[in-house]
Amino acid sequence: MAYRRKTRAWSLALCASTMLAFSGSAAQAADQFKQAADGASIECAVSARELTRFALVDDQFASVSKISTGTPYNDFAVTNEPLRGDIYVSVPETYAARSISFFATTKKGFVYKVSCQIEPVPAVQVFITNPAIATNKASDWESETPLETSAVRLIQAMANDRTIDGFEVRQSSALPARVGDLEVQLIADYRGSALAGKVIRLANRGRKPLTLAEADLASSQTLAISIAQPTLKSGESTVAFIVGSNGGLGHD
Fold first, then answer.
1. Tens digit of each residue's pLDDT (9 = 90 or more) over 10-44
2. Can you list the positions of beta strands (E) in 107-164?
């Protein structure tokens, strides 16, 4: 395993491969997934006749503030479910307005403004995530050891296909790139707070054996790197694990 090695020609192929865009998965039509920062506005749709569930990912609702009309037939209701910290919104058939709005405070101290259109749809769920929560979890994991030690721990996690709390892990659909006889393809991308890791597939497309050095794949931003099988016969492939600073290895 090497640290902060020089960039060589094969690192150009790595950069070309890792800069390709990732494909996202479509959310289910029945549920709504929202991402919001502290103080942000969240727009959504609530059911006109059935319950709408609002759930926070890795957080819970602490309180909801809204204006009451004083007349139950023309006011929507918000019920807090104490076990999971979710809230449920119900709108009466006599409700005159076409939208609802309220402020929600969470147990981790975030505040959101929720504005929703009332739609003639069945019961729905609205899931709300805040990237700051995941970033804090990743930062806690990274700070357990010195940064370069954490980089080695991240390589170990990637090599064993383990998830890390707070890290975003995305599988890549990037096409392979070629430099000479070497084929380089991004397989997976790990993103934490300070660290970023990449799983790279390397294949020898030439007729002669090929020996890979860690310095051939490292850049100035690389903190740790490991190649599972440095020497490849013609047609053989291996996997490399590269860890650097978040933002320093390229992103889509």
1. 444 444 444 333 333 333 346 999 999 999 999 99
2. 111-119, 124-129
CA atoms lying within 13 Å on the CB side of residue 29: 2
Q: DSSP labels for 70-122?
A: S-GGG--EEEEETTTTEEEEE--TT---SEEEEEEEETTS-EEEEEEEEES--
Instruction: Specify the pLDDT at position 165.
Output: 86
Alpha carbon 44 to chain centroid distance?
21
3-state secondary structure of 37: coil
- How far apart CA 45 and CA 121 sit, in angstroms, is 9
pTM to 2 decimals? 0.56
The residue ranking higher by pLDDT, 19 or 187, is 187
Relative to beta strand 168-171, strand 182-191 is: antiparallel
Q: Is pLDDT at 153 greater than 80 in this prediction?
A: yes
CA distance 93 to 73: 8
